[in-house]
Amino acid sequence: MFNSMYLSILIAVLCLSGCKKTSPSAPADLPEPVTVHPGTIYHIDMEGKDLYDLFMVVSLQGNVNRETPYLWILKNPIVEYDGPGAMVDRSFWLNTINDREKVAFEDPYLLVRDFANRGIRGCVLYDDDLFGDYVSGARHPQPNDNLVAKLNVTAMLCAHYGAIALTKGQYETLTSVYGVKLPILDNTTTDKFDSWLGCYRYAAEVAYPEPAITSIANNSHYCLGMFDFLVKNKMFIINMKGDASLLEQNFTDEIFDRVPGPSPVYGIWNVTGGAPGEDAFMRYLNSRGKYCIPNFEAFNISYTSGLPPYVPEKSETVRGLTFDPSKKYICFTETDGDNYEFIQQVFPIRFDTPQRGGFPIAWEIASTLCELDPVAARWFYTQIGQNSYVNPVTGAGYYKYPLPEAFNEAYFRVTDEYMEKAKYRTIRTMEYHFESGRPLTDIPHVEGVFCGYGHADPARPAVDENSKSHELYNDKPIFINYSYQDMAQISAYNGPAPAFFSVACVYTPPSDIIQTIHSLSSDWIVVSPGELVDLYKQYTSIQHHE
């Protein structure tokens, strides 16, 4: 196997020697290398650059940032997620950092030159038609599975060797124009990488020879925004197939079983309608004791995860309300905060809503954010106002279907640790039934559970049957969420008091929620999810004594 690998490398080198060289610029045309200082952010704007240059830079970024956070990339989403609407400018998060010096690069090749001595041992060659004519910033059809597998294996080899991903043209340019001579450590342009299974078998043999795989990711598209983090952590990067052959499925099972559970799977299912979609993806992962940390294209997590975790003082303002049996209580929660792209690119836009901070609106913000992106965590906690933060589905990560019993204790322990650090006490499930929430009441820092995503799922209780939407289990309240689409009926609710409504708001502008709050009559009390939990416990205590 190793002999054939080196033969492939030799062939690649010989091919390069016969290629037409780019005319080099005079050495005097190039600026002197920067002097690298720890604590300085070296950033480059990659908007408008092609995906080949972006892949080169993110593979550099992941390797360099493994030991010390240095490199930051400015880039809008590549495979743009078109559900939530407006996103922040690519420079938003860099502009929130005011305690570090910043040095800008314009030329990605100069960035490679100046950081090639920071843990970079060589390069991995890949095909110069891998991305085709893909245009960044718009959703396109799902790429061919084999192409994505070749992209993923190239990234894995870059992580394994401490290498940069280069096409032959980029290799020539670096050598002849910039004077950077990187050894070719591997080459994915050969026919052994023409199949999905061939790619991943090679990666497993070369980069992951140990029986256990420490961490794993799923990338199904050109989601290069998260690749710096995948490379940094040397994750096994797969793209699960929806039409896998028996051999392919057996290999997939083998790889996932080599990752000790319960373990997170970082990344995303097929994002443009391909198979497997979200449900099939989660059903498979959950059945094997895995859960998901969704990320389409949240950039620079390799940088932010290298900073000290953020330690918040609190996640909500509790007003110490006293239960009134004549009132109707309601809370509103903005969902989808388990997805790092929402946190990084969508929620900051919604936080800019006038008067937003003056209401007890809840936001799902992943409790892992304080560790993975303390820059964003600090910003959100600083901007909280009278809002509150809750744990999205279903703790340390997202599972849609119950994990096998053997994994529950360990998963709940990890979730409890993250909730304690983030000062969280409430959590959500995906499904609209009490059975999905009851197991989570075993988690010590969970004081209340909210069940259901927020779409118009027929499984949720009818508005006029509000008493069926809540229960006390294990001395902890559980609520079935209503949808924001139910608000007209909820506002008109004339059933018995007290009443307890939890409304999950999917893709709902905060301005709409504020308008709804203003329209409610005086017998409605708007509270945070945590306050709804507290009030419900007061209510059940009174019921018990009666």
From TrEMBL:
Pfam families: GxGYxYP_C, GxGYxYP_N_3rd. InterPro entries: GxGYxYP_C, GxGYxYP_C_sf, GxGYxYP_N_3rd. Residues 327-537 form the GxGYxYP putative glycoside hydrolase C-terminal domain. Residues 225-305 form the GxGYxYP putative glycoside hydrolase third N-terminal domain. PANTHER family: EXPORTED PROTEIN, EXPORTED PROTEIN-RELATED. This is GxGYxY sequence motif-containing protein. It comes from Parapedobacter indicus. The lineage of its organism: Bacteria, Pseudomonadati, Bacteroidota, Sphingobacteriia, Sphingobacteriales.
